[in-house]
Amino acid sequence: MTHAVAHHTSTGLDNRKLAFWLFIGSECLLFGSLIATYLVYEGRSVAGPTTHEILNIPLTSISTFDLLMSSLAMVLALAAVARGDRLWSRVWLATTALLGLVFLGFQAYEFTHFVHEGLTLQVNLFGSTFFVLTGFHGGHVFVGVVWLVTLLIRSLQGKLGPDKALNVEIAGLYWHFVDAVWIVIFTVVYLIQRQ
Amino acid sequence: MATSVVEHVPAAAAENRSGIWSWITTTDHKRIGILYGVTAFVFFLLGGLEALIIRAQLASPNNTLVDADTYNQLFTMHGTTMIFLAVMPLSAAFFNYIIPLQIGARDVAFPRLNAFSYWVFLFGGLFINSSFLFGAAPDGGWFGYANLTSKAYSPGLNIDFWVLGLQILGIASLAAGFNFVVTIVNMRAPGMRLMRMPVFTWMSLVTQFIVITAFPVITIALVFLMFDRFFGTNFYNAAAGGDLLLWQHLFWLFGHPEVYILILPTMGMVSEVLPTFSRKPLFGYAVVVYSGVLIAIMGWGVWSHHMFATGLGPIADSVFGATTMLIAIPTGVKIFNWIATMWGGRIELKTPMLFAIGFIAMFIIGGLSGVMHSSPPSDLQQTDTYFVVAHIHYVLVGGAIMGIFAAVYYWWPKVFGKMLHEGMGKAHWFFMLLGMNLSFFPMHFIGLLGMPRRIYTYDTALGLDTMNLVASIGAFILGASFLIFIYNVLWTRKNGQIAGKNPWNAATLEWAISSPPPVYNFSVLPTVSSRLPLWTENGVSEIPDVPPEPVHVPGGTVWPIMTATGILAVATGAIMHTLWIVVAGSLFVVFSIYRWAFEPFEV
Questions:
Q1: Between chains, do A41 and B212 touch, taking CB under 8 Å as contact?
Q2: Closest by CA position to A78, among listed A143, A138, A136, A17
Q3: What is the ipTM of this complex?
Q4: B600: chain A residues, CB-CB within 8 Å
Q5: Domain ranges of chain A
Q6: Which residue from A minimizes the CA distance to B597?
Q7: Which CATH superfamily is domain B25-556 in?
Q8: SS3 content of chain A, % helix, strand, coil (to 5)
Q9: CA max distance for chain A
């Protein structure tokens, strides 16, 4: 995968990029199933804390803004790598990863806070669906951060020249997808709560 | 000049092409195809053995050969094995071996990912079957309805093996799905336009799209079940307000597209066999292709016909009844196209052709009983009876397995260079057809007369002793027919007639090269100018026997199997409830992926 040998393909589209788009399509169904389940079960908990009592919209708006900004940083990182700008590709890759970490920090705080408030995986349907859905998303962000740090290390080793821009582009596709999913989750879980 | 051409040896091809290690590290799609085929056939025999024990138990009323618990494990593992470990990977064997040859490619798009898919499939199959060693084989039925699968009602390891095993197998299917879509879309030889692709490749493409969209859904259903069992969540817990139908919806949302994952590749296979032995192009190629695409799309809108008995209400029942009737149309279109292909052709009744014709006949019967389920009132009479068992076996044994064996006999000479014995092949076909009809046809009546499926015994008062005995005798004839096949394979190894490039005078690209094909497949990448390149004058550019210049062949790698081992370790740790094994396995997966990503490997 480290080779950037341009192979001829029938569509002209790089194999890895096409595979990654298919992967994202598959992931849509994965998150679709999770979100659909959350919606089906919303408001059906028979015990324990519910959405209105516990969700903190202002706080999560900040982490949402943070994640959106990371997508901007990702775009700038790709542009920097593509034009062979070593310094700024490092800066923006590091920024993207850092913003991702900050988001995970918010999530860790939120999860611990909720558990203290009595919302656990086991206590009710809201707990089960909320933690599994957002946890799945958090797991994706974590994988993305590891990926970005790997790219950053490759850059620091001087092995991330413009010929490797596709590697960054694919990581970017993943990162933007994870971001877009969060916009849906934030809207569905936090903003539009069933009365 | 001429002498130097002969001396060219493909780059990495000569070294390490024999021995076990070369198979473990192989990335050659042809070898992986053979691995898939052999492994899946062994699982197929295992699943068949389970079926024979079931039929031996049911041969006489109030039989005590096995107890109820064992019986539950047998039918669950029979279904799970046949669907996930036999039919799907048998098709995968042909995806691997045949698709690159049919589209004029030297390998799949991601050879290492391909090896990874195989090893994950193998480990998943071994993992789920290892449950027998602990006397804890899955016992919740192949569709594992909630809340029978909950910790409260299934406290043992049985369902844990099932839920973890299926998730491992899902990884293999998804990885293969991405790989084959990219291969078919992107790796075609010059001139191999989409509408020139052989129908088998087309149906495989459609199938892989279903795989990558349907498997995430069952993954999530299984994740919920896993969380319920391991961490005490409430997804399928009615006491906490959970809805048991959530499982059924998620499962069948995957499960119905899954039946097209099982049957569409087979439809592609017989679409190759029928024209070859009718000496006529496939009738209405474009319509066959489009109806396959249509089946895949409509296959997403029929899942609730598995759930009529749950009482979804008149609107849902009507909608899903109607969509189920509609999906019979593209299926029927294909059947008429196959019959029209034979019509007026010079039919040669060779073994593959017999299997293909058997497929059409049996699939029609299975399709007719299937469309009967589209009427909710009629379905309510049939749900959970042997009628459904008869239906599923007509489409999966008479349909999928018959079609797959048409392909086995058809492509065997290409893969191994020798012709299977015709007489034994025909005997296999005859006894398989006889056995399956004897076994499954009475089940229609057994079911309509009220015998429920999945009950380990029945009483004489039911009046079904004779029909059950006949079904059991048929099952053993069906099983024995595969012994003929196995003997045929062994016989052919020693005495088989050498096949040559194109023993059937077939039209598609894989028959333009030697049998078995060289490691690099095509000495030069062919240019295709016809849908039937070998039946058309100048349908394909010349492919010399010796490569005019050295061909690069990817070497072997150990990291796909290592990554798969890590995944197996994670599942093993989970079933043992031992956190450190899970963590160690995960770290090993990450380590292997990094080694994989950064190893020098040129496709």
A1: no
A2: A17
A3: 0.95
A4: 2-3
A5: 15-191
A6: A1
A7: Cytochrome c oxidase-like, subunit I domain (1.20.210.10)
A8: 75, 0, 25
A9: 59
CA distance B17 to B28: 10
pTM: 0.95
Q: Are B217 and B257 in contact (CB under 8 A)?
A: no
A25 close to B (CB below 8 A) = yes
Q: Which residues in chain B are contacts of A5 at CB distance < 8 A? A: 602-603
Low-confidence ranges of chain A (pLDDT < 50): 1-6
Is B385 strand, coil or helix?
Answer: strand
Q: Give me the CATH topology for the region A15-191.
A: Four Helix Bundle (Hemerythrin (Met), subunit A) (1.20.120)
Q: Decide if B243 and A122 are in contact by the 8 Å CB cutoff.
A: no
Report the run of H or E that residue B307 belongs to, with start and end: none
Nearest to A120 by CA among B231, B453, B595, B89: B231
Cβ distance of A132 and B224 shorter than 8 Å: yes
| Type and span of the H or E element at B219 | helix B199-231
Kindly determine whether residue A40 and residue B243, on different chains, have CB atoms separated by under 8 Å: yes
Q: A1: which strand partners?
A: none
Which residues of chain A make contact with B242, given a CB cutoff of 8 A? 41, 44, 125
Task: Write the DSSP assignment of A15-32 as a string of letters.
Answer: HHHHHHHHHHHHHHHHHH
B478 Cβ under 8 Å from any chain A Cβ: no
Task: Map residue B528 onto helix, strand or coil.
Answer: strand
Q: Do A37 and B224 touch (CB under 8 A)?
A: yes
Q: Which candidate from A2, A3, A33 shows the least CB-CB separation from B250?
A: A33
Give the β-pairing of B418-419 and B497-498. Answer: antiparallel
- Tens-digit pLDDT profile for residues B362-419: 999 999 999 999 999 999 999 999 999 999 999 999 999 999 999 999 999 999 999 9
Residue pLDDT, tens place only, A98-128? 999 999 999 999 999 999 999 999 999 999 9
